[in-house]
Write a structure and sequence with these properties.
Helices cover 35% and strands 16% of the residues. The chain has 11 helices and 14 strands. The strands form 3 sheets. It has a 7-stranded mixed β-sheet with strand order 1-7-6-5-4-2-3, with helices on both faces. β4, α6 and β5 form a beta-alpha-beta unit. The protein has 384 residues and is α/β, with parallel strands linked by helices. The structure holds pyridoxal-5'-phosphate. The site of pyridoxal-5'-phosphate has 14 residues, from α4.
Length: 384
Amino acid sequence: MDWRTKLLNPSPKARQDYRSLATPVYRGSTVLFHEQSVVTDDWQQAEHGYSYGLYGTPTTLELAARIAELEGASETFIVPGGQAAIALIYFSYCQAGSHALVPHSAYGPNKAMAEGIMRGLNIEVEAYDPLIGAGIYGLIRENTSLIWCESPGSVTMEVQDVPAIVQAAHAHGVAVALDNTYAAGVMFDAFAHGVDISMQALTKYVGGHSDLLLGSVSARDKQAYDKLGPIYQQLGLAVSPDDCSLALRGLQTLAVRLEVLERNTLEIANWLADHPLVAQVLHPALPTCPGHAVWARDFSGSTSVFSFIFKETIAADRVVEFINQLQIFKIGMSWGGVNSLAVVYPDLQRPHHDYGGRIVRLNIGLEKVEDLTGDLAQAMATLS
Ligand SMILES: *Cc1c(COP(=O)(O)O)cnc(C)c1O
């Protein structure tokens, strides 16, 4: 062989018996087949063998299998982010003429997709009261094909009675999808509570360090898997093996991070509950959070994100000053990483409820709690 040809047809030189604790990062688009008769374009790589890098390399499939094991799912798909996971579920369960239900408290971009792409495709996504419970029965129509749950909800933190919603949905043959990001897929057992599809923004707790974007969509059974798979293939939801490798590393410390985050967050939530300028703390483990009793019944713990509402004596512009005054808390969206974050929602509204720009969401990180309460205290002091 000419040296040019040899460059492209190497035989492995290094020893191949290396054993590491870390999953190797397998890159690749093309998959090589042994003979023409086995060439295929099959998304079911875990069952039928590798066909194309678009459906994941061994690094992706290892992450998928570990998430599936953690959540007690039949199978898991890894997708580019939480929002891509939401899209995969909508497209798998809704067609032109379908009706779907999503709680008012759902992640904002989920509702934006409902009002945007879905509406444009003649899919009607109706918003419902997150605390509706068994009352969801009355909203299910002939053409309802999907009910979303997100528990606790984004920003306003309502804990949903998922088993009651599942019971009503299944009585009508309707699938239930849960955005289980808050619970990191572990603090709430989606499948034990009857959910059909559970998704997570792995960006949050599994990644855990604010340095990657990934999502997961986990199927309860083969029926859900077969519905999701073809759409996953058609949408081309490829992910980077490097990001999967970081997520695999994140899984190794998930338990210790969650333990400290839960403890730190509870301390700060309780500190805020005692503060004279605070009207209400929306943390699922506190009785002041809507749906707290359901949380106590169904969850095995709480995580690091929660909100609080300033008293009406504090005007919206003062709340903005409070945020700007924070030193250790950074101003930023997303959460689940190691840094504490704060953000105010100036325009947040729910039906029959205007928060008047006084609702602040915190993500607690791994800093020393006393430093964080000290930071909150000094910023609060500028308000009184
Ligand atoms: C962050 C988030 C998402 C979206 O995740 P990305 O990876 O940022 O796309 C979805 N659902 C919830 C509840 C989230 O907090």
